[in-house]
Each structure stands twice: as structure tokens, then as C-alpha cells.
Amino acid sequence: MTLAVFSAPVSPNDLETIIRIEHASFTQPWQRQAIVDELACPDAFQFVAKAAPLPCSQATAVGFIFVRLLTDEMHIMKIAVEPQWRNRGAARALLLAAQTEAMRRGSVTALLEVRSSNNAAIRFYAKSGYQTIGIRPNYYPPAGETALVMSKSLKEEP
Hints:
28% of the residues lie in helices and 40% in strands. It has helices at 15-25, 32-40, 90-104, 119-127; strands at residues 3-9, 44-53, 60-70, 73-81, 109-115, 131-140, 145-153. A hairpin with a 2-residue loop joins strand 3 and strand 4. The longest helix has 15 residues, at 90-104. The N and C termini lie far apart (40 Å).
């Protein structure tokens, strides 16, 4: 079976799936209320990655991205994909959709923090054009793991 993976704005029907993916993806997942609050944040937008059999019929959410806009900067708060859907284009679809929307809203830079031990995510971001620009020691509780700060210019190339 061939699958299509695409991004779409989050709908209220996606909440339970987002919570499930969050808990499958992070050792310290956000709780339901934090996710609900993020979805309601006025300076934020979110997308879900959906997969559907071709020809497209009923699409299923397989990942999500939460983004906040701070002046002319896009800050990736969260990105996660169901474990069985990783390395199949969902994260790339989410990242591209978020970058496109951020540029449409005037962002010129994208920024994120990633655990220094998360080699797969670091490789994904580097392959997507992000560069490490700094570190945040003791960023992730409870062990105080260091975060790498990564950034990418969203300016159109001449």
C-alpha cells in the first residue's frame, strides 16, 4: 500500500492523538492541560502530519509540530512523530509546513532547542539546514541535560 504524508492545521479531533504521540515520544511529556493551553496560544500555530492510503481516503494523524512566533522569529516548541512513522517523511512535512507558515507571517529565523543526546533529531535538523549556535546547560530536568540551540535563516535566497 502506498501512503501519502501531508501536513494540516490541528483540529479539535486531533487532541487525543497528539497526547498519545507526546507520551510515546518524550520522557517528560507535556500534560493534557499544557497541550490544550499551547493550542490556544495566540502567538502560536500548530500542524499535524497525516497519513492516508493512496488514493486518499481517511487520513490519520501521525505527528505534530507546535510553533510560537516571537517578533520575526519562529520558535519550534515541539515536534514529534509516532515511532512507527519515523523516517517516512512526516517530520519533514511538518517542518516545511511550519517554516512556510512562519515566513508567510513575517519570520526570518527559525530557532529550537534539542537534547544534546538526541542524535537522530540533531541529524534531522542539520540535514534540514539548521546549525548549532549555542548551548543551554542544565536545560532539561530532572537530570539537567544540556540543550543545543539550533537556528536556520528563513530568508529567501536571492
